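Lecture notes, unit on binding sites. The following record was shown on slide 14. It pairs a sequence with pyridoxal-5'-phosphate.
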Amino acid sequence: MALDMNYVRGAFPTLEKDWVYMDNAGGSQILKGCVDKISHYYYNHHVQLGGSYDISQASLKAFAEGREKIATFFNAARADEMVFGPSTTVLLQFLSKAMASQFKPGDEVIVTITDHESNIGPWVWLEQYGVTVKFWPMNMETYELELDTLDALMTDKTKLVAVTHVSNLLGTINDVKSIAKFVHDRGALICVDGVAYAPHRAVDVQDWDVDFYVLSLYKTYGPHHAALYCKYDQMKELDSIYHYFYGKDKIPAKMEPGNANYELSYASGAITDYLCQLGEMAGCTGSDREKLEVAFQDITEQETILSERLLSYLSKRNDCTVIGISDGSSPRRVPTIAFTVEGQDPEQICLAMDKYKIAIRFGDFHARRLADELDITSGNGAVRVSLTHYNTLEEVDKLINAFDEILGS
Ligand SMILES: Cc1ncc(COP(=O)(O)O)c(C=O)c1O
C-alpha cells in the first residue's frame, strides 16, 4: 500500500518550510513525536533518575520506555541489549574499549575499505594491543564486498569482522545475514554499522544473528542520539567503561558512562511509534514489530519510485558517473546516491544548488579510505543526494530541473 504522504509530511514539522531536504544521510528531519517527547520530558521528568521520590521513578520509567521501543526497532530479544550514546562514532569507540581485554597480541580484526571511519578507526586503535588489522577490499569493477575475498583474509586468529550494512557513498545493501553466518562459521564475531541502512529498511538483529549493530537515531527521524545493540552473550563479556565499582554485570549501564541522555533516549521511542502508526494505516493489526515491518515495506516502495526517477536521469546524462548500483529499481539499493560530474567541482554544484533551496552535500562523507580508493579525494569527493521516504517525486523533479540549469541539459 502506498504511503499517505500527507500524513508522512505532516509528521515532520520542518518539511513545511521552503527547503527541500535531500541531505538525509547526513541527518534526517526530526519527527514531531520526538520533539514533543523531549518537551514532555523536560516539563515532567527533569530530575535525576534513581531517587526514591515519585518524579524520579516516573523519569526512570520514561527512560526505560525509550529503550524498550528502540529494542523493538532493532528487534532485539531484550531491552537491556540496547546501549544509548551520543553518536555512532562514540558508541563504536566505547565498544572497542570495552572489548580490548578480549584481544591478545597476534589476534586479527578485519575491517572494510567501504566503511565510514567510525567502524574502522576504533578497530585500528586495537593495534596498540598487538592486534593485526586487515582490510577487506571491494571488487573495483562492481564495488561489491565478496565473501571469497573475506575467506582469503580470515584465519583462526580472526576475532572480529567489522562491516557496514550500507556504505554512505555506494548505497548498496550488503547481505549481512550471509556475512554474519560466514563469519560465525569461522569462529569470529561481527560488528555492523547500520547507520545508512536503518532509515530505509527494517533492522532485524535476531534474524541476521549479528553480535553488534549500531545506528544514528538522528539520521533515522529522531534526535541527535545513537543506539548500539550488543547480543546478550556478548554484552556479558564486555568490560565496564563506567566507574571501577560498576562491574561487568551492570548491564547495560556499564556501556553508558555518566549515563545516556535521558530525554533523547525517551524521545527516540517516538520513531517506533511513528512506524507503528504507518503500519497501522497500511492495515496491519499485529504486534508493534509487525506494524513496523509493514511500514518499511511502504517506505521502500516510495523510495524506489524516487531512486528510479533520479537514477534514470543521472544515467541518461553523459557527464555523470553514479558511484554504486545505477538501477533505481534494484532491491539492493537505498536512495543514497553519490555521483561525480565530468569537469565539475562537487562543491560548486552544491553551492549552486543552495540557491534553489535544495539541500544536498559534497565530500567524502568520512568514508575517506573509500574515497581514496575511488580516487575522488583530491577533487572535493562526490555530490551526494540522499533521499528518504518523506521526499516526493515533485521534489526530485525540482532537483532535476535545477541540475539541468546548473549543469546544462
Ligand atoms: C555509514 C555511517 N556510519 C557512521 C556514521 C557516523 O555517525 P555519527 O555521526 O552518529 O557518529 C555516519 C555518519 O555520517 C555514517 O553515514
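Take-home: Residues 192 and 213 are 5 Å apart (CA to CA).
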